[in-house]
Design goal:
Radius of gyration: 14 Å
Distance between the termini: 26 Å
Structural class: alpha/beta
Strand order of the largest sheet: 1-2-3
């Protein structure tokens, strides 16, 4: 299976997770994603893109980064709800950064 940690053809799977007021849901979805990736021995990360949630979603994301590792949980806070066009630009930026 491609993606196993010990193979030379390892792929890293990135999940971009847009959030707004997801304080209660974020630990559950991260746990589920981590469980699936780890059970299948896949390299992974979850990029949490938060639109300035007033409920403390960003703090929960930081705590989860402490639990799973900052290489697994990456927080990308935004100033507010900037729309899908902005998000598309951000995704291209992330892809470009990884290609370098």
């Amino acid at each position: 299976m491609q993606g196993r940690f010990s193979t030379p053809n390892t792929h890293k799977y990135s999940v971009i997770l847009p959030t707004y007021n997801e304080r209660k849901n974020l630990p559950i979805i991260i746990w589920l994603l981590a469980k699936v990736f780890e059970e299948n021995q896949l390299a992974w990360e979850v990029i949490v893109v938060d639109d300035a949630s007033p409920d403390g979603t960003q703090e929960i994301a930081r705590q989860l980064a402490g639990v799973y590792g900052e290489d697994k949980i990456v927080l990308k806070p935004r100033a507010g709800k900037l729309g899908l066009g902005y998000e598309s630009m951000s995704i291209r930026e992330i892809h470009h950064r990884r290609a370098i």
